[in-house]
Automatic annotation (TrEMBL), chain A:
Listed cofactors: (R)-lipoate
Keywords, alphabetical: Lipoyl
Cofactor: how bound: Binds 1 lipoyl cofactor covalently.
The UniProt record lists the keyword Isomerase: no
N6-lipoyllysine PTM sites in chain numbering: 59
Subunit structure: The glycine cleavage system is composed of four proteins: P, T, L and H.
Entries under HAMAP family matching the protein: GcvH
Residues spanning the membrane: none
A biological process term (GO) from this entry: glycine decarboxylation via glycine cleavage system
Family membership noted in the UniProt record: Belongs to the GcvH family.
Protein name stated in the entry: Glycine cleavage system H protein
Highest classification ranks of the organism: Bacteria, Pseudomonadati, Pseudomonadota, Alphaproteobacteria, Hyphomicrobiales
All residue ranges annotated as the Lipoyl-binding domain in the record: 18-100
Automatic annotation (TrEMBL), chain B:
Gene Ontology CC terms: glycine cleavage complex
Protein name (Swiss-Prot/TrEMBL): aminomethyltransferase
Record-linked NCBIfam families: gcvT, PRK00389.1, PRK13579.1
Binding site for substrate: 209
EC number(s) on file: 2.1.2.10
Residue ranges constituting the GCVT N-terminal domain according to the UniProt record: 15-271
MF terms in GO: aminomethyltransferase activity; methyltransferase activity; transaminase activity
Reaction catalysis annotation: N(6)-[(R)-S(8)-aminomethyldihydrolipoyl]-L-lysyl-[protein] + (6S)-5,6,7,8-tetrahydrofolate = N(6)-[(R)-dihydrolipoyl]-L-lysyl-[protein] + (6R)-5,10-methylene-5,6,7,8-tetrahydrofolate + NH4(+)
Domain Aminomethyltransferase C-terminal: 295-373
Protein's organism: Roseibium marinum
Family: Belongs to the GcvT family.
Keyword Methyltransferase listed: yes
Length: 123, 383
């Protein structure tokens, strides 16, 4: 399993041809208290950069973009009842969706953990 | 953060360094660098204010005096620009009002206080919105009679303390604060510092707004924050608190196109003024009072968990768009999303079923009474 990070503060954990996607701890901290998460239905085909999900904090709505192409195979139903889990466990139990990787070549444009950490420090 | 130059152009309030020390996230707001939240976060700050007491820096708001030869002259000058009665305003009493344009639209909403002391006869103290200061002040200067002048106060901070424990926390330093009736004000000492304290606020809770000398603002804030009951609260929770209280945010829920009747703030118009008119836009406003306005601000409750924000369209179920959301978000005390918006009067009745269109989806909602959370303003016990 390899985990990648995007400049939009998503993490993408790839195992075989399935990518699990969520937002990083830095992202949840910036958002503040999450009160609602809108997730895509299984079967939806997303292209890199498409709006994949929306996170609503008390203050504002923020889009989450697909970091790679692929087909949604599962959304995390737990977040419908427990949106605050995004704040509590963003890089674990509060994953947003699983995608079937459509173009694995796009993964090489993403950052590894060390590069992401360095990136966040520049913000 | 991204644009360091833009940050340095922002004005700072006298409490800026304290906000930073307290770990606030500072954001640009109305030309000022202001705390949107502290470490606790908006949700916790909101709930703390409802259960104990929150301290808000509202020093970005404009403080000014209208100064004339006597109360009646100054009051009449302000009445010429607003639909409220000020001639009858008692000593130490405060009133919410609006500045109107010629079309009866709202230039700004403001709080007006008649000082308690006879020595200040002829003065009215104003508090106006930060983003409207320049417009308001120019409006006054262009229209005030020669014997009434506007004096802008630049050397005082404004600190709000709100919540069920707020007045007790303030009274520990300024005992006279506990004696104030709702919507009244007086000058008093807070640990020996000369303050002007009004029992009012923008949260629906009991509490005060304190005008304090800029140089003493930090001492006042620190003294209050040393009390376990009092936590610092940012603009994020200030917004969610006022939304639950059903209170308007200028530039969103009311603006230069909306009249006080449409904005459902007719409580700012006292009987004499409604009948006499004699204010800008009186023809429109009196007609709206008589026949009802075309549209009106209403409260909205969503059935689901997804919030609807400002700009979301309001539609009839499976039907056409009939209005727009002007404020909306998650209400921490209610535990659900709420909103305000404008609707044609015929659809404004409580319980009317509607849909709010968010990202192309129609979310079921109903017209709801405001406030969404009961007001807990202080009422003096009858003796």
């Amino acid at each position: 399993m390899t985990t990648y990070y995007s400049k939009d503060h998503e993490w993408i954990s790839v195992e075989g041809d399935i990518a699990t996607i969520g937002i990083t701890s830095y992202a949840q901290e910036q958002l503040g208290d999450v009160v609602y998460v809108e997730l895509p239905e299984a079967g939806r085909n997303l292209s890199q950069g498409d709006e994949a999900a929306v996170v609503e904090s008390v203050k504002a709505a923020s889009e989450v973009y697909a970091p790679i192409d692929g087909e949604v195979v599962e959304a995390n139903g737990v977040l419908a009842d427990e949106p605050a889990k995004v704040n509590a466990d963003p890089e674990g139990g509060a994953w947003f969706l699983k995608m079937k990787v459509g173009n694995s070549g796009q993964l090489s444009d993403l950052m590894d953990q060390a590069a992401y950490k360095a990136y966040v420090e520049t913000l | 953060m991204a644009d360091a130059n833009a940050e340095t152009d922002l004005k700072q309030t006298p409490l800026h360094d304290l906000h930073v020390e307290l770990g606030a996230r500072m954001v640009p707001f109305a030309g000022y660098s202001m705390p949107v939240q502290y470490k606790a976060g908006i949700m916790a700050e909101h709930l703390h204010t409802r259960s104990k007491a929150g301290l808000f820096d509202v020093s970005h708001m404009g403080q000014a005096f209208l100064i004339g030869p006597d109360h009646e002259t100054t009051a009449r000058a302000l009445e010429a620009l607003t639909p409220s009665s000020f001639v009858e305003l008692g000593l130490g009493r405060q009133r919410y009002s609006v500045l109107l344009n010629e079309e009866g639209g709202i230039i700004d909403d403001l709080m007006v206080t008649r000082p308690v002391s006879e020595e200040d006869d002829g003065k009215l103290m104003l508090v106006v919105n930060a983003a409207r200061k320049d417009i308001d002040y120019a409006h006054f200067r262009d229209r005030l009679p020669e014997n009434v002048s506007l004096q802008v106060v630049e050397d005082r901070a404004l600190i709000a303390v709100q919540g069920p424990e707020a007045v007790a926390a303030v009274a520990a330093h300024a005992p006279k604060a506990a004696e104030l009736a709702f919507m009244s004000a007086a000058s008093m000492e807070f640990d020996g510092i000369d303050c002007h304290i009004a029992r009012a606020g923008y949260t629906g809770e009991d509490g005060v707004e304190m005008s304090v000398p800029a140089g003493a603002a930090e001492a006042v804030a620190r003294a209050l924050l040393a009390d376990d009951r009092v936590q610092p609260i940012g603009l994020g929770a200030r917004d969610s608190l006022r939304l639950e209280a059903g209170l308007c945010l200028y530039g969103h829920d009311i603006d230069e196109t909306t009249s006080p009747v449409e904005g459902a703030i007719t409580f700012c118009m006292q009987k004499r003024r409604r009948e006499e008119g004699g204010f800008p836009g009186d023809e429109r406003i009196q007609a709206e009072l008589k026949n009802g306005p075309g549209r009106v601000r209403v409260g909205l409750r969503l059935d689901g968990k997804a919030p609807a924000r400002e700009g979301a369209e309001i539609a009839l179920p499976d039907g056409p768009v009939i209005g727009t959301v002007t404020s909306g978000g998650f209400a921490p005390t209610v535990g659900a999303p709420i909103a305000m918006g404008y609707l044609p009067v015929e659809y404004a009745g409580t319980g009317t079923a509607l849909e709010l269109i968010v990202r192309g989806r129609r979310l079921p909602a109903t017209v709801a009474d405001m406030p969404f959370v009961p007001n807990r303003y202080y009422r003096k016990p009858k003796s």
